[in-house]
Amino acid sequence: MRQSGHVLDWETKPLPFKVYPALEQIRLPTALPALSADTFAALTPADPSAAAAPLDLERLAALLFFSAGVTRVKTYPGGGQIHFRAAASTGALYQTEAYVIAGAVEGLEPGVYHFSPGDFSLRRLRAGDFRGAVALAAADDALAAQPAILVLSAIYWRNTWKYQARGYRHLFWDSGTLLGQLLAVARALDVPARLVTGFVDAQLNGLLGLDAEKEGALVAVPLGAPGPVAAASPVIVTLTPEVIPLSPREVDYPLLRDAYDNSSLDSEAEVADWGQVLNYDIPAAPARSNVAIQDLTPPAREAGRALGETIERRGSTRAFSGEAIGAGALSSALYHATRGFPADVPAGLVDLYVNVHAVTGIEPGAYAYDRDAHALARLRAGDVREASAFLCLEQALGGTSSATVFFLADLAAVLARWGNRGYRLVNLEAGLIGGRLYLGAYGQRFGASGLTFYDRAVVEFFSPHAVGKDAIFVTALGRSVRSAPPSGERVAWRGGAGGRRS
Q: What letters, b where the CB count within 10 A reaches 16 and e where it falls short, cover 186-214?
């Protein structure tokens, strides 16, 4: 890392927004439904028998705003601005883009749209109902009957500008974090939502008109209760809309593009075959002997903050105070973050390891979290703050937190079973759980921050328990250093709450 020689070229820092200069702006409504449900209630799996709310333009706008919208703008002397978003992103680079394939959304004509968070608008790329095309690409007929499909993509350069080819994993951390929030908002609005990770990448990229050398689709999210099946899609002609360049020049990282291509699915038949593999059960992790088990306190049913307020308060903690949080607070955050998610992929591909620094009622040390038993298995006792900080790329945040959660996975087993696309799955799940930990922390009035790490050192630290696994992601939890409220213009929306991203 120290010998890489990579420095940030501020002259080529990418624009924060994708801009289609020739497409008409369609303003989204700002009278958004209030997210009054408690944060933990929004993280609780939905009752399949519960009645679903209709997907109208107001609910769609709320889903977009509270997951991918701009929630605060800070202006610096000289006119420079930072646009903070609802969901966290590595380096505040926000490479995740959102597209809507609408077919039966009340108040919105059928079409393929790009969501522009900068002016809170949609821009139509194609007119007509293309839900059937997505259903074909995903080998999932049910998609053609749901009112809309949200597709998340990533613009590579916006992240590789800082993180180079390592940004490949960041694409899925950040889209996963956004999805953690999106699913919670959908739950609060009674809008059914699920994740679709298997699709013909080239078909979806072509439908959205993406330059495959620079941007790729990552995941699709069908929204709303099923209705009449869409008619056959219109003919999909090649789409090459004008897009303003992000930078005067860009640096290409072929390793990232190769990783995307080598994990792509090439045909509907391949998607169907891959989906059949996903239906198999995940083997249970082998029991680990000679570890002390500590049962966690029962998780709280309520966080104490409504989801809208939590998103308003959510940020990324810049400095932890080192103060303790309660055992119940850690228990509740871990529990509600790991209850699975509706998807075409199985949950449970990542394992959580927790370095406890200052949690009332839990001795400091390194632990493995058993999500089924909701218990911690102690791997080593004593103060691990210094080790945690080192593991987190020598960042103090990793050790000054109350607890730092490390995500690991048996990557060899995942790749053997689900192919190269399995690497996407483990990073996406880690990001999603990390996003829920953010909500669980801020819902209980303490902070969180996502961190990167020394891969091999993390595995060695948690071994022998972690032998054979790979490090995937890190989220630190704790109380923030008290400081003056951040300055900046809060974006206010009637009926809802804004958010904060640092």
A: bbbbbbbbbbbbbbbbbbbbbbbbbeeeb
The pTM for the full model equals 0.93
- Amino acid 454 reads Y
Rounded Cα–Cα distance for residues 428 and 69 (Å): 20
Enclosing H/E stretch for 282: none
Q: E-assigned strands of 357-413?
A: 359-360, 365-370, 375-381, 403-409
Domain definitions of the chain by residue range: 10-269, 292-478
**Residue pLDDT, tens place only, 387-396:** 999 999 999 9
What is the per-residue pLDDT across 470-498, written as a single tens digit (0 to 9) for each?
999 999 999 999 744 444 455 544 343 32
β-bridge mates for residue 377, sequence order: 293, 368
- What is the H or E stretch that residue 174 is in? helix 167-188
User: 292-478 has which CATH code?
Assistant: 3.40.109.10
Chain centre to alpha carbon of residue 199 = 19
- Considering the domain delimited by 10-269, tell me its CATH architecture: 3-Layer(aba) Sandwich (3.40)
Query: Rg of the chain over CA atoms, in angstroms?
Result: 22
Report d(CA 466, CA 406) in Å as an integer: 11
